[in-house]
Specification:
OB fold (Dihydrolipoamide Acetyltransferase, E2P); 5-stranded antiparallel beta sheet; 5-stranded mixed beta barrel; 4 domains; 21% helix; 8 helices
Amino acid sequence: MKETQANNAVVLDDYTQMLVNAVTPIKEEEVVNGIVSAITGTQVFVDLGPIGTGIIYGVEYINARDIIKKINIGDTISAKVILKENPDGYIDLSLKEALQAMTWSNADRAMTENKVFELVVKDANKGGLIIDWNGIAGFLPASQLKGEHYPKVSDGNKEEISKELKKLIGQRLPVTIIAAIPKESKLIFTESTESASPITTNNTEFESSTSKLSAKTKKKYSKAIDIISQYNLGDIVEGTVTGIVDFGIFVKINNEVEALVHKSEIDWGLVEDTKNYAKIGDTIKVEIIEIKDGKISLSMKKLKENPWLAAGKKYKKGDLVDGVVIRFNKHGALVSIEEGVAGLIHISDFKDEVELKEKLSLGKIFKFEITIFDAEEEKMTLSLRK
């Protein structure tokens, strides 16, 4: 945001960023709640209220596919913020990481409270037992077993120890968490019900078993990337409209991959109702404007003449122009000086919001002075002239 002393006005050089900064800032790694507003074959959109719109896509969608199958539009879900704002203006979310974060938080609490769980032994290796707790593969080192379960092998033969430990697979054991290390995905148990000191482990079998899931995920993600890799930025392709929502139009291109035309990429003018620009089943031409993290973003307006290019030859800072007020927001009013070319008159030009709406009316024409005009960046700010 830039400031100027003229009229004590605050001149904003990035309208979208201004909207983002207007709400209470969120932090990455924070768990937020929102309402599911749309679900496609590759993306989930989440309404986060004044914070903005969240999106679960790419590898995060693949990771949470089983969870996503159980949710519906209108459901309230918790998700973890992994990127405060992506290039499309969305907040990147992780559904699985949010669930994992809550699970690890519960594990830490259980460790503090020295809770005892009756859990089934899922697997064993020469170092100890693998135990599942709330979807997390935990490890119970052989050294933490009670005497009755400790492998009594006289010569310390590792293969014999492994055989003895495997006899415990399927049995339920009373266990207590003694270490919860989310960054390393390590959950360590002891069979003793007494308070135990946290321990560290270097067990390679445990690390190997917990890394299999990520390898599996990478394989699925790689397959999705292979499909998308045939496309390039700037490609003009045909697609079928598969969905229309408030924030954009979903298009399946070449019957292979579904992508979004965001509301801001539908037309150069103000898009009030996305349903006015397409119908489900329509075949339309779109341009690929971004390929990132297993996701393709599309544009319809890129295939139309950019009105800002012509406007750049006509207008400059200081010009007096007639403009139509087309929208109010908490930062002021959006004013169109011609089709597809609009700028902001900031609320700081007025005493308050009441005065703003008294002096300006939606749909009416007023005289304005251009205070900033940048055709290349498609940015314009205005001040009211009597």
